[in-house]
Design brief:
heterotrimer; A mainly alpha; B mainly alpha; C mainly alpha; B: mainly alpha; Helix Hairpins; 5 helices; C: mainly alpha; 2 domains; 14 helices; extended
């Protein structure tokens, strides 16, 4: 049992080393190997979760022979273990479900690079989730950015290259700000380890030193990460990147990469700056405003799309708005809702991208609604998966999205009156808009088709079916078993402080 | 108040220079449509941060952190941490620059222009 | 309905939001729906070149110019330029005010001169065995960061490979002949310089724990030597020394060794086990535990990456 505390370390090292090993493998071996690695990481993360829950407290783990302020360190708590488990499951299903599309989209010589990128992405995600050191966080942010860019551009067409260039430019602005913020934070506190920075900040606060630089530093760091995670005004790269890249990449980008940055931001808010300082700087209100605007604008733009992938992409903008709105409420319940929405959205959005790909596979690879008519009848499993995902995003009871929306409403009741009104109105309006565009999508994919089309048999893809079943199971599990998960998240937030 | 501000700026003259360069780089990255200029802007930005860090590590009258003659006194050497951070940062920015340049080469071969707006519009209209 | 939609498309707010997201349509041409098969087809670079004619190029330029000269776009891009300049200025001013209140330059009582740097300086030599404290810090105290960093190099090289590598393995018949012109002065200079540069690079790598330098700087010097050789003697002769296979093997071996060695050290450290790696006498070449070997690994990776970047940019193959 005691041995289980090594698991997070094994996860990170395994995924990093496996990326190196894949570089000399053949394409087929790379596929199998990376699936095995992601699966193993999922199992190890769930073991970590069991271990952390059983000991009931978080622990730190030396990366080297030296204790806290000198060496690198990772920290494991309930929230970290849960996020790692969920992310690895989502990643496993996305990679499995989109494998065939990757095979079609990516040139033969480049296929094993795809799996190198997937493994390094997993490593970066895990390291960002577990790290207790801000500079390690920065290094892995960069790995994540580069691997995300590679996942977009590996499909060699013009749209993807342009999307990758736009993505890189936005990310570079973000990284520059993060690096500057980190340097200033180091200058003010003299530490790079999260818990030590927090102690130093508390000392500075008590003595009234460096108030102004600290505020600016917090602002710079938060804006940097918000740019990277495509918060509303910085989302211009997102629709192209999600809409044209290969299905697995879209799923990974929308459900894991932006969520990884947000998780790091939450970690910085709680464990580095401290919620008291965050409330003083009022950065939460900025998040709240942009989150609400993003919720509405993302949904409005999603309605105008005629391409199913672009529509899901704009819906992602709206969902990221939800998460920032929850964080901006500034209460623990708001954070709880935001974290639950991270889980709900990453399980539902990846599912929608994968199933939309299954739908366009039976419609001559078109992504336009006009051509997708009846595709859900031709490919029933993809149709069901798409419907479940859309219902979850709209907020139909029994599914994850419903619980998330209830949590947001619940959190808003405990916030100030003006925020309550704004949240309720925004939730209602955004849900309505969600219903409009997702219902249109569902209706158009279930449009009746001619009989001779019905006769046409498409080859079944067992991997795709397994992935769809995993996704449906995950969504229903999150939707029906929410209470224990919410309790665990609350306990995890308690461990953060 | 204002006088104090200016005096402080002159005391921290390395940092002052660093943030001005950072701002120039940031604006270049935002303002220019040319991809190569954007890359230059990004590099300016990163290098400004390295200058900032290097200045932060310096302590007046101390030497570079390489042990000479077995002197291991904390008052003999400057802070080694910023040096390490700069080293890591440089490697990261080299990598990102290489990727951006490769992307630019690829885009130029395809669209025969470096203007990102033009590229975006051609790719949208031309469907390639 | 359709009329409403058209009105909506012409409204200023819609134009503005389109401009912000970068998908302004050009209204003069009919909004023809893209044919899906064309849109998703993977266009090979070479194939694309052959299809690409000058008239095409001019046509596109005209398309873009027509777009640029529309009044709204002109105003919007002017506004954008002014806004970004203003944002840049605001950022500079805010940061300048911040800098004025930061700890003073060169002051020894600044927050960053605390117990952390104190231990690195006072106990670094004993604990890591490295005379160069920075080397000891990045490869022992904070080795996880550095492992991440060498992975950044690896992933960057993979990205450039994805982007620029020609898919055909066989070089085109006289590609190297066209590309490469013999230059007697360069050749003679290279004959003298390349060994010196390579030996100097190896020296810097091997003495990374004793003197300024280390894997990154030494590796960059070695990479420069390789690039000079390739420039002077051509890629054909370079391939005898250094081919794609060598590149893959070296990167793989070095990173795998780095990963495994550091995992061992992390594992023993975290579980408070005794590590069998000896530290040696400080100052000797074979000292400071793993740092020397890690420096060699990093040096090899950096040298390969630098040369790899050059070769890929120059001719699309390593």
């Amino acid at each position: 049992m005691e041995f289980l505390r090594n698991m997070p370390f094994f996860c990170i090292i395994l995924s990093m080393v496996s990326a190196v090993i894949i570089s000399i493998m053949s394409d087929k071996a790379a596929r199998v190997f990376s699936l095995i690695v992601i699966g193993a990481v999922g199992i190890m993360s769930s073991l970590t979760l069991i271990y952390v829950v059983s000991i009931g407290e978080s622990y730190t783990y030396y990366m080297g022979h030296f204790p806290a302020p000198w060496g690198n360190e990772i920290r494991v708590g309930i929230l970290e273990a849960m996020t790692a488990t969920l992310f690895s499951i989502v990643m496993f299903a996305s990679v499995l479900g989109g494998m065939k599309r990757v095979f079609i989209d990516v040139a033969p010589k480049k296929r094993n690079f795809y799996y190198i990128m997937v493994d390094l992405l997993l490593a970066a995600l895990l390291a960002m989730i577990y790290t207790n050191d801000l500079f390690t966080g920065y290094v892995f942010i960069e790995i994540m950015t580069i691997s995300a860019c590679a996942l977009i551009m590996i499909k060699d067409n013009g749209h993807c290259l342009v999307a990758a260039a736009k993505y890189m430019i936005m990310s570079l602005i973000g990284s520059g700000l993060i690096l500057l913020g980190l340097s200033m934070l180091y200058d003010l506190t003299g530490h790079l380890l999260m818990s030590n920075i927090k102690e130093a900040i508390e000392l500075n606060e008590a003595s009234g030193l460096y108030q102004l630089p600290l505020t600016v530093t917090v602002g710079v760091l938060c804006v940097g990460i918000a740019i990277k995670s495509a918060l509303f005004p910085f989302h211009s790269w997102l629709p192209d990147a999600y809409g044209y890249s290969t299905a697995t990449s879209s799923a990974l980008l929308s459900s894991l990469i932006s969520k990884g940055y947000i998780f790091l931001l939450i970690k910085i808010m709680y464990r580095v700056i401290g919620m008291d300082v965050i409330r003083e700087t009022r950065i939460g209100n900025v998040f709240f405003v942009f989150g609400v605007v993003g919720m509405i604008m993302g949904s409005v733009r999603a309605i105008a799309q005629t391409d199913v992938r672009q529509m899901i992409a704009y819906s992602s903008v709206a969902q990221i708005g939800y998460i920032y709105m929850g964080m901006g409420l500034g209460t623990e319940l708001g954070m709880l809702a935001a974290i639950f929405h991270i889980f709900a959205h990453s399980s539902a959005k990846s599912m929608m991208f994968i199933s939309a790909d299954g739908l366009s596979y039976v419609s001559d690879d078109s992504k336009e609604f006009d051509d997708l008519g009846g595709s859900a009848i031709k490919n029933p499993i993809a149709g069901i998966t798409f419907t479940v995902g859309a219902c979850s995003m709209i907020g139909i009871p029994m599914l994850a999205g419903f619980i998330a929306k209830v949590c947001f409403a619940d959190a808003a009741i405990n916030a100030s009156t003006i925020k309550l009104v704004i949240v309720m109105l925004a939730l209602a309006f955004s849900t309505l808009l969600n219903a409009v565009y997702f219902m249109r999508a569902i209706i158009s994919v279930y449009r009746p088709i001619k009989e001779e089309d019905q006769m046409k048999i498409y080859p079944r893809n067992p991997k795709f079916i397994v992935a769809c079943l995993i996704f449906i199971g995950l969504n229903i599990y999150l939707g029906t078993n929410a209470q224990p998960i919410l309790d665990l998240i609350l306990e995890g937030i308690g461990m953060f402080a | 108040m204002f006088k104090e501000l200016i005096t402080n700026l002159f005391t921290n003259y390395y940092e002052t220079a660093a943030v001005i360069i950072f701002g120039i780089g940031f604006t270049t990255l935002l303002l220019n449509k040319n991809l190569i200029k954007k890359i230059i802007g990004f590099n300016l930005m990163d290098n400004a941060v390295y200058l900032f860090l290097a200045a932060k590590g310096y302590v007046a009258g101390r030497k570079a952190p390489i042990v000479v003659n077995n002197v291991m006194d904390v008052n003999a050497y400057i802070n080694p941490i910023p040096a390490g951070l700069v080293l890591t940062g440089i490697v990261v920015s080299v990598s990102v620059t290489a990727i951006m340049l490769a992307l630019t080469v690829k885009l130029y071969r395809r669209y025969h222009t470096l203007d990102i707006d033009e590229i975006a519009i051609i790719s949208r209209k031309g469907g390639i | 309905m359709s009329k409403l939609k058209e009105n909506y498309k012409d409204s200023a707010s819609q134009k503005f939001s389109d401009f912000m997201t970068g998908d302004l349509e050009i209204p003069d041409s009919p909004p023809a729906r893209k044919k899906p098969d064309k849109q998703d087809k993977i266009v090979d670079a070479d194939e694309f070149f052959s299809e690409f004619t000058i008239s095409d190029d001019i046509q596109r330029r005209e398309l873009y110019q027509a777009f640029r000269h529309r009044r709204f776009v002109k105003h919007a891009s002017k506004l954008y330029s002014i806004m970004s300049a203003v944002i840049g200025l605001i950022i500079i001013v805010i940061l300048l005010i911040t800098v004025a209140y930061l700890p003073k330059f060169g002051n020894k009582s600044n927050p960053d001169n605390n117990i952390v740097s104190q231990r690195y300086i006072e106990n670094g030599l004993e604990e890591t065995g490295a005379v160069n404290i920075v080397s000891g810090m990045i490869l022992d105290y904070r080795a996880f960061d550095t492992f991440g960093e060498s992975n950044v190099l690896f992933i960057a090289c993979c990205c450039v490979l994805i982007l620029l590598r020609n898919d055909d393995d066989e070089p085109k018949p006289d590609e190297d002949v066209i590309d490469f012109k013999r230059d007697i002065i360069l050749e003679k200079a290279a004959k003298f310089l390349v060994p010196v540069i390579l030996v100097f690079g190896i020296y810097v790598v091997l003495n990374g724990h004793l003197s300024p330098g280390g894997g990154f700087s030494g590796g960059a010097i070695m990479g420069a030597g390789l690039i000079l050789f390739a420039n002077a003697y051509g890629f054909e002769r370079m391939e005898r020394l250094f081919s794609y296979g060598t590149f893959k093997k070296i990167t793989f071996g070095a990173l795998l060794f780095y990963g495994l060695a550091k995992s061992y050290s992390f594992f023993t450290g975290a579980n408070h086990l005794h590590s069998i790696i000896p530290l040696g006498t400080p100052g000797a070449i074979l000292s400071s535990g793993l740092i020397l070997y890690l420096n060699i690994c990093v040096g090899l990776v950096v040298a390969c990456t630098m040369y790899g970047f050059f070769a890929l940019f120059k001719r699309g193959r390593i």
